[in-house]
Every structure is written in structure tokens, then in C-alpha cells.
Design a protein that fits this description.
Two copies of one chain form a homodimer. Chain A has four helices and three strands. Chain A is α+β, with helices and mostly antiparallel strands and 93 residues long. The first copy, chain A, has a single domain, classed as Winged helix-like DNA-binding domain superfamily/Winged helix DNA-binding domain (Arc Repressor Mutant, subunit A, Orthogonal Bundle). The longest helix of chain A is centred in the last third of the chain and has 18 residues. Chain A starts with 10 loop residues before the first helix and ends with a helix. Chains A and B meet through helix 1 and helix 4 of A and helix 1 and helix 4 of B. Chain B binds a DNA duplex (30 and 30 nucleotides) through helix 2, helix 3 and strand 3.
DNA sequence: ATAAAGCGGTTTATAATATAAACCAAATTT
DNA sequence: AAATTTGGTTTATATTATAAACCGCTTTAT
């Protein structure tokens, strides 16, 4: 049985990646809304994805307000696809 | 975003369920081989699946040796299918 | 017959993970 | 200018996964 990448095998991290796979970039507030997570949890999980090299996190400003934008990296994209493949063998899809 | 049933969202428990979905029944030793898990871990995870009502665990004998057989329940089957559906929304399958 | 090794597990301790609660600085509203 | 909101981070706690230690029984070797 294939291993399931533990970085992706987490509900919130998977949800974030799932969004980022379809959307070019998304900011903290948007991800929080879509995933219905708490800010703290999201912050931690974004760090992990970032530390794994699966996403980049860019802090900037919109007017006077901070804005944290996230994008999936090529490495993240690949990892996501491999995760999907591994899962398929469990789910018989 | 749909919730992912935490009982199934665990590599080893998912692997076990995946096997049981295709096989009518499987015993402890077989599951241990197929999943390449340690006996302790498998024992704990079978208990959780059983406590959740997703599998039944039947202890018997083959000759003088004990044999622990597992089968997926109707409830387990349903939960597995719902889990697959929920996951699909994350993976865009 | 007895000690040692193996089989089929369970229980318990530990490490890792996920999650929420508490907190913080800057901006906005009252 | 005090209170509230926004956009987060840090830290503490609960949950989970995992492995290590153990247990009773059986088989094998001495």
C-alpha cells in the first residue's frame, strides 16, 4: 500500500491545497472563509505547508491593511497529484 | 467544504477499510501483512473501527490457534462511501 | 520434562498532530 | 480617546497515531 503524504493527509491542509490548486492565489481571509477554520489553526497549517515547500506565503499591503497571499508551488502541485494517486488505490476509483 | 469523517481519515484505518470493502472477511494476520503495520497499531485501530460500528471483530480458533476475523458492517460500508464522496470534492475527481 | 522461541494479539507509554484559546499590533469606528 | 474590529501569531491543550513492552498459549529443541 502506498504511503499517504502526511503533510497532505490533514483535513485543513488538504482543503487549503485543494483551493490553491484551482485558483492561482488566495489570501488568508479567503482561505479562512472557505475552509471555515479558525485563524490560529489556519496560520499553523499554512506554516507547515510553507515549510514543506508546498506553498509560498507572501505578506504585503492593500492600502494600510496587511494581506497574506498564498500560492501553490510546483512541488506542491506535484505532491498533491501524487497524494491523489495514492488515495485512489485506497478508494478504488 | 464537507467534513471528512475522522474515523476514516487515518491512513491505517482507511487501508483496513479499503481491504475489507473488497473481501468479505479478513483476519488480523492478513491485515497486518497487507498494511505492513505493527500488531499494536493494528489492534488499536481495529478497536476504533469496531467501536464506531464500522466493522465486526470475531474471535475464534483454527485448530489451537486464535484467529481474529474482521468484516465491514453495513454502517461501515455507508461511511466509507460517504467519505469517498467527501474526498472527491477536495480532489476534484 | 523443560527451557526457549514463536504466534497472535493487548495494554501502556510516548511522540506527533490538530485545534482552540489567548494574545498582539495596527486600523477603524464610536 | 476609548472601544471594537481586522489580520493575524504564539502558546497551551486535547486528540491521535505509533511503537514498545508485555501476556498467554503453542510449538520446537535439548
Amino acid at each position: 500500500m502506498k504511503e499517504l503524504d502526511p503533510i497532505l493527509h490533514s483535513q485543513l491542509r488538504l482543503a487549503v491545497m485543494s483551493i490553491l490548486m484551482n485558483v492561482d492565489e488566495a489570501d488568508f481571509v479567503y482561505l479562512k472563509e472557505q475552509t471555515e477554520s479558525t485563524a490560529g489553526n489556519l496560520s499553523v497549517q499554512l506554516d507547515k505547508l510553507s515549510a514543506a515547500g508546498y506553498i509560498t506565503v507572501t505578506k504585503g499591503f492593500v492600502g494600510k491593511k496587511t494581506r497574506t497571499a498564498c500560492q501553490v508551488t510546483e512541488q506542491g502541485r506535484k505532491a498533491f497529484e501524487e497524494y491523489v494517486n495514492a488515495l485512489k488505490s485506497y478508494l478504488n476509483l
